[in-house]
Amino acid sequence: MHSNLYSEKMRLAITLGLFVLMFLSATLSYAKQDPQNTCSIHLTNAGMKEVIDVLEKQTDYRFLYMPNNRTKQVKISIKQDNKPLRDILQQIEKQTNLKFEIADKTIYVKERPSQAQQHIRRGVVVDEISNQGLSAASVHVRGKSAQAFTNGEGYFEIAAEPNDILTFSYIGYQPASLSINSLTDTIRLTPTLSQMDEVVVVGYGTQSRRLISTSVTTVKQENFNRGGFSNPLQLLQGKVAGLNVTRSGDPNETPSVSLRGPSTLRTGAAQEPFYVIDGIPGADPKLVAPDDIEDISVLKDASASAIYGTRAANGVIMITTKSGRAEGTSVSYSGYVGNEKSSKTIEMMDAAQRKAYLETMGRSAKPMDEQGADTDWQKEISRIGSIQNHNLSLSGGLKNASYNASLNYFDNNGILRNSGLERLTGRLNLSQRLLDDQLTIGINLNNASSNSQLIPNQDLVLYNALRFMPTVPVFQPDGTYTEDLPRVQYYNPVALQNQATERLRNNTTLLNVNASLRLPFNLLYNISATTQKDLYNRGIYYESGYSLKQGFNGEAYRSSYENTRKMLESFLKFENRWSQHHLEVLGGYSWQEDLNGDGFQANNRNFPSDDLGFSNIGLGSPQGNFRTDWGTNQYAKLRLISFYGRLNYNLKERYLLQVSLRRDASSAFGENNRWGTFPAGSIAWRISEEPFMNGQRIFDDLKIRAGYGITGNSLGFNPLISKVRYGNAGTFFYDGNFTTAIFATQNANPDLRWEKTAMANVAVDASLLNNRLHVTAEYYDKKTSDLIWDYNVSTTQYFVDRYTANVGDIRNKGFEITLDIVPIQNKTFRWVSGLNVAHNSNTLVSLSNDLFASDSIPQGYPGGQGQSGVAVQILKAGYPIGQFFTFQYMGKNEAGVSQFLDKAGNITTQPIDFQDYRYAGSAQPKLLFGWNNSLFYKNIDLNVFFRGSLGGKVFNATYADLNRPYEVESYNLPVFAMNESPEDGNANRYSDRYIENASYVRLDNATLGYTFTNIPKVSKLRIYLTGNNLALISKYRGLDPEINLGGLTPGIDNKNYYPRTRSFLFGLNVNF
User: Fold this and answer.
1) Does residue 134 share a domain with residue 62?
2) Contact by Cβ (8 Å): 647, 584
3) Fewest beta carbons less than 10 Å away: which of 91, 514, 698, 838?
4) Based on the domain organization, do 213 and 306 belong to the same domain?
């Protein structure tokens, strides 16, 4: 796969290079703040005038100074070749009592105060335990205005007098004050768990955590999950209470994310949170490499997320990437390489076990299956996967400008042969301050180019790897694949893998230009313009021998689609402080236009050779009644406009208030309900700031808060959902000619409106034990109304028999507890532990209204052979989404045949589908938890992370569909079926026999690292070993109990599940 991205790599590298050159050129006028001109100078005992003459001839700077007796007496000896002017000036300062100040193209030469009056103090600020330098730590001279900040490695320089006291502070650390006389070269700060001083990202701005009255959880880079992740959302798995992230081992699969339970009957993006990257709403998370992320904030309740209106019903996830600082240039590399394998396989009968079973049951194998082989088909389609990630970043800046550029390469060859993902991601962030810092202009450029290797009909490959006969080889002696096509759904899985090819290439580019201007009267104006473009190119080729395309002599598909998004965001903010009051008011406007599905699809058959694959589908020459498959994609436009506002007020930083309002209009919804209004409000009381709390020693901070708001859901909806849609009705012979006809495929609904979610949230935040323990406890009640669903209607009143309408309600209630604690902390050892626990209760309240009614809707069709129309779940008022509804298994009768309980309470071997079903538990877990532990001893760090789920159920459809003892002559059986009777034609029938406990505890990640210090020219070097998915405690018999909890059919483990992997990685982080 590596060669396929060569052109993309070159294009992205050239683009990034051009942008860097443009930026450096644009900021040349500000290079005076940090002169980089290269000079050579060789002088001995020279005067200042002679030195200036040499330097002025080699640079475009001019020196200005007032000669006096002291400056005339200065003698300078210096020998430097091709050194930056800045370094030369620093060498001269060390030899003399002179200092240089730069303005425009002039360098002013001044005398420094004598040593008796002032000293330049230098040092490095580090973490007390790890000895890591702390970037951007504040160094302040007590009682004076002098202040400095540490650079990327923790070094600082500040002017101070002998009797001064320096104060050192850094977020997350206890401040320290040292007198000049006691100052050492290394200042060690002690970490603390105080979270109240954090600045967290919220909608259209930031807030101090101590002043937040809404539910916002922030995960910083150092607390992210470790491992080989292709998507940034995996960094949060198990880290945020109430946020559930699930994913199989497929490198091309996007994780399923749900927050505080399902709140819609729609699937896909409609159930996902809304994503905001660096303030850009709706940006795609795949545009950001995990190494480039600074922190991720999750806006949980409606009072926090309602500022995003119709896109915030499932919460908002805000990703903040790393940015440059005005501290010189910093270069960093991070990378890892490793292997992965399937963490578990299904135990199928091998040749010996199958022979013993047949003999015991008095059956015999088909002669064609007795070929003397003992093939492990799961092994044949699998391999040891490889994974690697490399991230190179360059950041820095000048006094008025900063930049951050990064390039990331990710490659994952999946554990199934012929599957994998290769991706190149580039990012460039530029910021320029103008007009005495009153105007800030920024540019963000992101690009992600990926090449996915997919397996056509992957579900059949996985299914047949389980039930294909172990007694036959992969190949026959003549080199052809072993096949027996007359058997139903029986195909050589290796042949399916190797005789079909599918490639998907995706290129996503986002460009954002933004500006903020400080105006009189404490006003700040911000404007942001964004364009994002997605290009998809897919190619599929089935070779002439492919089992599912017999007689086609090769078939090829090609498709190419483009999606474009344009956005404009603009807001004005007023902020004022007076006495003990703080007021902030924000008002803005948003416009967005999406153009989706601009492209085509085509196919062809009957190719002269399989060698060219899908590269030239014009070579095909189809025969007979062949019609090109143009696909079902539709070109559609969606527009969204919004007005929004928010007010934040606090009194004495003790009483907090926030209210917000957003009005959205979308072209997707009915013409009678284009607009939606989404208000929200929250209050908080910091009890610890009350006078009556003075003197108590229990709480360092104590706050209670409550919020309520209404949000909407417009994600994942087709732009034409409320319109009449038409399709091709075929070709008819009319009036002597063949005529193509069209007919309506969807009814219009001019009254279709937003789904609305109302949420109430109450919480307590507390810090104790000198900020070594932080506790948050929350309770929420979330109800979604006006659910959108398709209902059966009469064609006497409507074009078609399905009508999309607003009907029904869903409720989610639950609690969340988060604890962060430092159990042990001393000069050499620190243990930081974090635990989060979440419970959610989901109920489908109603499926009916005055016009449309539905008692129940069958859901969850595993699609097993002979049971393709059989559901195992149900949507019904009073029950949760994911409610199992199936037969009740009652063991076997004397003949060994499975029997069930019918509706009347009688035991029968011939139950009736749906009529005899019973409720059999829910896939929704009772409790989700994550437990993280980080230990630091000198330069050694160890992180161990557990997570788990308790109380849910999972339907093992894989075992049900494999358990076919009555067809033992045709298909292989799992080991657990050794005692099954071949006379049992009901053995595989879906029932609660296959519903199992989905509870588990997983050792999800363990990382051991070592940091090297005091390496010349290297500010940080860390190596580490990481293991993912190391251990699992579960009673579940299938591959893995952690099945997707998103969608309408959670908890069904089907036979097409890509196995979850166990990986081991070696990584390196180095900063220069």
Assistant:
1) no
2) yes
3) 698
4) yes
pLDDT value, residue 326: 64
pLDDT value for 118:
53
User: Residue holding tokens 């199928």?
Assistant: 348
The radius of gyration computed from the CA coordinates of the chain, to the nearest angstrom, equals 33
Give the H or E element holding residue 910. Answer: none
The whole-angstrom separation of Cα 749 and Cα 549 is: 41
DSSP letter at 114 equals P
pLDDT along the chain (1072 residues), means of 10: 48 46 40 59 87 85 72 82 85 82 74 58 79 78 76 78 84 78 79 66 88 93 82 90 91 92 89 94 92 94 94 94 79 95 95 95 93 97 97 88 94 97 96 90 96 96 96 96 92 97 97 96 96 96 95 94 96 93 96 92 94 92 81 84 96 96 92 93 96 90 97 86 81 78 86 93 94 95 94 87 91 97 89 96 91 87 92 96 97 96 96 96 96 93 96 96 95 95 96 97 96 84 95 95 85 89 95 87
Answer yes or no: is 795 within a domain: no
Tell me if 289 is assigned to some domain. Answer: yes
- Residue 273 DSSP one-character state: P
90 lies in the same domain as 149? no
CA atoms of 872 and 922, how far apart (whole Å): 11
Domain identity same for 161 and 284: no
**CATH number for the domain harbouring residue 94:** 3.55.50.30
| Strand spans (E) along 32-154 | 38-46, 62-64, 76-84, 98-103, 106-111, 119-127, 138-141, 147-149
The answer as to whether 640 is a domain residue is no
Instruction: Report the b/e string of 99-136 with b at 16+ CB within 10 A.
Output: bbebeeeebebeeeeeeeeebebebbbbbbbbbbbbbe
Which residues in 543-670 belong to E strands, given as ranges? 555-578, 581-605, 636-651, 655-666
Quote the pLDDT of residue 152: 65
Cβ-contact 97, 112 below 8 angstroms: yes
Nearest to 480 by CA among 532, 561, 545, 534: 545
The contacts of residue 843 (CB under 8 Å, 6+ apart) are 810, 811, 812, 878, 879, 880
Indicate if 530 and 626 belong to the same structural domain.
yes
The conformation of residue 828, written as its DSSP 8-state character, comes to S
Distance of CA 83 to the CA centre of its chain: 44
The verdict on residue 450 lying in a domain is no
- Kindly report the number of other CB atoms within 10 A of residue 895's CB atom: 10
pLDDT of the residue at 70 = 64
Q: How far apart are the first and last CA of the chain?
A: 31
How many whole angstroms separate alpha carbon 188 and alpha carbon 171? Answer: 14
- For residues 125 and 103, membership in a common domain is answered with no
Tokens standing for residue 896: 């060994």
User: What integer pLDDT is reported at residue 56 of this predicted model?
Assistant: 85
Q: Which domain covers residue 42, as residue numbers? A: 34-111
Based on the domain organization, do 520 and 620 belong to the same domain? yes
Measured CA to CA, the distance from residue 467 to residue 709 in angstroms comes to 52
Q: Which of 787, 935, 926, 810 is nearest to 879 (CA)?
A: 810
* CB contact set of 480 (below 8 Å; sequence gap of 6+): none
Domain total in the chain: 4
Instruction: Classify each residue of 487-521 as buried b or exposed e, where b means 16 or more C-beta atoms within 10 Å of its C-beta.
Output: eeebbbbbbbbbbbbbbbbbbbbbebebebbeeee
Helix axes 85-95, 48-58, angle to 10 degrees: 170
Alpha helices in 237-279, H assignment, sequence order: none
Task: Cite the beta strand spans of 828-922 per DSSP E.
Answer: 829-846, 856-859, 873-876, 883-886, 888-892, 898-901, 907-908, 918-922
Backbone φ, ψ for residue 589 (5° rounding):
-135, 140
Closest C-alpha among 104, 109, 67, 107 to residue 85: 107
Domain closes at, from 65, 81, 111? 111
Q: Are residues 222 and 284 in the same domain?
A: yes
